[in-house]
Amino acid sequence: MSQAKTLAIVPARGGSKGLPGKNLLPLGGRPLIAWTIEAALQARCIDHTIVSSDDPAILAAARRWGAPAIARRPDRLATDDADIMDTLFHVIEQTG
Question: Per the domain annotation, does 23 fall within a domain?
């Protein structure tokens, strides 16, 4: 029997309203998204990490900071009222 794998999906929308551009804002010398990616990669309970974003700059930063996989999120899933479950299903469908 194979052991179950744990997937971390990091949703990072480009259109933040409360703090615009928050995922790329520096915190301790690195963009906020870098801290999230690092935490996921270092967590022993997580086997795979995928960053999902509609923003090419966030996806590029995710790659620079070591995200092993990225998923380009369609605009319809990057609105203020988009359901996060739809985003998660999209990532799973795109990445297998």
Answer: yes
Residue numbers of the domain that contains 53: 7-95
Question: Pairing mode, if any, of strands 30-31 and 26-27?
Answer: antiparallel
Using alpha carbons, list the distances in angstroms from residue 61 to 2, 36, 83.
34, 12, 24
Identity of the amino acid at 47: D
Secondary structure string (H, E, C) spanning 35-53? HHHHHHHHCCCCCEEEEEE
pTM comes to 0.91
Let me know if residue 27 belongs to a domain: yes
Count CB atoms within 10 A of the CB of residue 59. Answer: 21
pLDDT digits (tens, 9 = 90+) for 4-36: 899 999 999 998 888 999 999 999 999 999 999
CA distance 13 to 8: 16
